[in-house]
Structure formats: structure tokens, C-alpha cells
């Protein structure tokens, strides 16, 4: 069976969000594609996330589960999902229900001619501390790697699988995928998306485990950008 879209969702202790999130995604994807799949990556959850997924899998044939033996982080979860994806396009969302699945068709429409669409949360529903740390991190990233992206922290994105396969992922590098796409000569654009308050579960990120820990990654991407091979062949036989 040819799969058109692969939806990849990393999950860490989201037992309360799994069922409502998948029930939201299903009708949206059924409208936009005949054949699609959902890859849920359980990143070492210690609650009932995996059990909920296994129960859902019995009635939802499009659902594929990847379960880690312990927590490895979001970059590893995305990488595992990307490598298992069979679709021509890969769609990513967070597992906390703050991304709105109804934005997916709008991102798909904007995909024409591009390799990556980045969701831009224009009206974020997060605590001021989280919004401030993201504003600082996004401003610093744009200044250093020149990717022109307003909100790389938004997990709602669409990738062309053929382009995505050419980007090696390292720990923490999922935050810099737009820059890595541009470094490799691919096209990236943004699309405004809805953002919702978290109503179930707890956020896994704060100033110390997100913004400060990305500095080394930022320097690594800046180095890659500065060392990218750039040349033109003058004569070809």
C-alpha cells in the first residue's frame, strides 16, 4: 500500500492526551488523504501512555507504535519516527494537544514547491516564562544561523520525505531542522497556526532543559553553516 502522509508524534507521559489527540487527527487525515499512517513514538513513558496506545492499535489499523526502553529525548523520538515513515510527506505534532490538527490541511496546501513548512504559533497559550524563553531562543537562533524562522519550537511541521532522508539528526538537533534544510539547499517557509492551552498532563520543558541546553547545538549549526561547500562548475564536458 502506498502511503501519502505519515504523522509522527513523540509521546512522554501523555496518557491523558493520547486518546483525544488521535481522535482529533483521524477525521482530519481521512479528509486529506486516502492512505495515511500515524506513528506514535513512546519515549520511555512511566505512566500508562504505552498501554493506551496498544489498546487503540487494536481498533485503528493506521496506528504504528514505536516504544523506547527508556527516555532518549525528542530528537531520538523524531528520528525513529522519520525512519519508520512510509509517506511521501511527514507531518509532526506534539503529544500535548496544544497543536491543532485542523491546521494540517492548511500546511499541506502551502507545501506546493517547498520541502518544509514550519508552523508559527501566532497567539501562544503558554505561561509568560515559557513564551519569554522561547522568544529569547528564537531571536538568538535567527541571529546566529540566519534561518529566518520565527518559531522553530512549534512541532507542527510538514517535511518532504525525500529531503528529510538527507538530513542526519543528532541529539537536540530537531530544533534546528529548518536551518539544516536550508544549509542543504532545500526550501523552507512558515505558516501561521493555532495554539491551544495545555489542559491535561504537565509540560516536560523549562528554561534550563530547553533554552540553555541548546547553546552548544546552536554553535554546532552555526559552524556547519559557515563550512558548507559552495561552488559552481564553470565548464562541463
Task: Please write out the topology.
Blueprint: E1 5-11, H1 18-32, E2 36-42, H2 49-57, E3 63-67, H3 74-84, E4 89-92, H4 104-109, E5 116-121, H5 128-145, E6 157-160, H6 161-164, H7 177-183, E7 188-193, H8 207-211, H9 215-226
Parallel strand pairs: 1-2, 1-4, 2-3, 5-7
Antiparallel strand pairs: 4-6, 5-6
Element-by-element helix/strand order: EHEHEHEHEHEHHEHH
Strand content: 15-25%
- What value does the Rg take, in angstroms? 18 Å
CATH architectural grouping: Alpha-Beta Complex
Number of domains: 1
| C-alpha geometry | globular
Task: Summarize the main sheet.
Answer: 7 strands, mixed
Task: Provide a concise account of the structure shown.
This protein has 237 residues and is of the alpha/beta class. 37% of the residues lie in helices and 16% in strands.
What does this structure look like?
With 237 residues, the protein is of the alpha/beta class. It has a single domain, classed as Spore Coat Polysaccharide Biosynthesis Protein SpsA, Chain A (Alpha-Beta Complex), CATH 3.90.550.10. It is built from nine helices and seven strands; from the N terminus they run E-H-E-H-E-H-E-H-E-H-E-H-H-E-H-H. A seven-stranded mixed sheet has the order 3-2-1-4-6-5-7, sandwiched between helices. The N and C termini lie far apart (42 Å).
Amino acid at each position: 500500500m502506498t502511503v501519502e502522509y505519515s504523522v509522527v508524534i513523540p509521546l512522554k507521559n501523555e496518557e491523558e492526551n493520547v486518546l483525544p489527540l488521535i481522535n482529533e487527527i483521524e477525521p482530519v487525515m481521512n479528509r486529506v488523504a486516502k492512505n495515511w499512517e500515524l506513528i506514535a513514538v513512546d519515549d520511555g513513558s512511566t505512566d500508562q501512555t504505552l498501554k493506551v496506545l496498544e489498546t487503540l492499535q487494536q481498533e485503528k489499523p493506521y496506528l504504528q507504535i514505536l516504544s523506547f526502553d527508556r527516555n532518549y529525548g525528542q530528537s531520538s523520538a523524531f528520528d525513529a519516527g522519520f525512519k519508520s515513515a512510509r509517506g511521501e510527506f511527514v507531518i509532526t505534532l506534539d503529544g500535548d494537544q496544544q497543536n491543532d490538527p485542523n491546521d494540517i490541511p492548511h500546511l499541506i496546501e502551502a507545501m506546493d514547491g517547498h520541502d518544509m513548512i514550519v508552523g508559527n504559533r501566532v497567539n501562544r497559550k503558554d505561561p509568560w516564562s515559557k513564551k519569554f524563553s522561547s522568544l529569547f531562543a528564537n531571536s538568538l537562533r535567527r541571529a546566529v544561523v540566519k534561518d529566518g524562522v520565527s518559531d522553530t519550537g512549534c512541532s507542527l511541521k510538514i517535511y518532504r520525505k525525500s529531503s528529510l532522508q538527507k538530513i542526519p539528526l543528532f541529539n537536540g538537533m530537531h530544533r534546528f531542522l529548518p536551518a539544516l534544510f536550508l544549509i542543504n539547499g532545500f526550501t523552507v517557509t512558515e505558516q501561521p497556526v493555532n495554539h491551544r492551552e495545555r489542559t491535561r498532563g504537565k509540560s516536560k520543558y523549562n528554561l534550563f532543559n530547553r533554552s540553555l541546553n541548546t547553546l552548544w547545538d546552536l554553535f554546532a549549526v552555526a559552524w556547519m553553516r559557515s563550512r558548507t561547500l559552495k561552488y559552481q562548475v564553470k565548464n562541463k564536458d
